[in-house]
Amino acid sequence: MPSPKTVETTYRFYRDNGDAMAFRLTFDAKDLTLITESDRDFPDWTKLGYCQCPHCPLSKAEYAQCPVAANLVEVTDMFKEGIASEEVEVIVETPNRTYAKRAPLANGLSAMIGFINVTSGCPVLDKLRPLAYVHLPFTDMTEVVFRAMSMYLLAQFFVKHKGGVPDWDLKNFPELFEDINLLNENFSMRLEAAVSKDASLNALTKLDCFASFAAMSVEPEHLGSLENMFKAYYRNMEQASVQDFGQQSLTPSGSFQTSDLAMQDPADDFLSDLAGAIRFSDGDDDSEALDLDLDDD
């Protein structure tokens, strides 16, 4: 049975007054690009040059609209009178499961806007597109950190496979979310021209808070609650004695002398184990590519 060419996720909002709104989002199944209408009229606030982010690499000569803004026109039109604190029933239907929650309107919009943003083709937000593959609405801060770090480290695995230098120590992880913070700050000025109430702006603010927290999350004090769940991976290391290190030598101060160690990339064994099981394709030949079924959870 052939794989589908597109996948869909639907967000439904039910207000207490009986009003109901539904947004069906359709994506290219291969790369999760959001598929939208291209022959519609766009308001001025969607123009690329309108409050363009200072670190946006797109050229006005090639792009008439900001790709994110263009994809949010329908959302802002529908919720421009929305109040952020209004309680609504939100139902999210994905190919594999359905989520339902009663929450403030801004929370439901934040989940949907974040989903749209990372699949719109923005060069800055594209680095978060893998999170759309496992879309999880209504996340808390701990879930954001867990998912974002996991995504980033998997990205480093692919960087390593492509011949690049992976960032296993997460040194550049904060910079990723600092860029997103800057984007959110500038994009909020766009939305101010599109909405008269605060629901959409508050939704973006919520995303900005998540990005700010993620940028700080690599600090040890922010990882303590997660570290305890990984003890099975390093428990034996804590119990090991110095003699267990064999040929490793100690300096007079008692620290390991790295020059005497057989240095090895921590991903090498993992890559070797996968080499026989997975055939990667760069898209330039007829080799069998890794086939993943979309799982939006």
Set out the fold topology:
Blueprint: E1 6-14, E2 20-28, H1 67-71, H2 73-79, E3 87-93, E4 98-104, H3 105-117, H4 130-133, H5 141-161, H6 173-192, H7 199-216, H8 220-227, H9 231-239, H10 268-275
Helix pairs in contact: 3-7, 6-7
Account of the protein in words:
- By secondary structure, the chain is an alpha+beta fold.
- The chain has one domain.
- Helices cover 38% and strands 11% of the residues.
- It has 10 helices and 4 strands, in the order ββααββαααααααα.
- Strands 2-1-3-4 form a 4-stranded antiparallel sheet, with helices on one face.
- Strand 1 (6-14) and strand 2 form a beta hairpin.
- Helix 6 (173-192) runs antiparallel to helix 7.
- The longest helix is centred in the middle third of the chain and has 21 residues, at 141-161.
- The two termini are 23 Å apart.
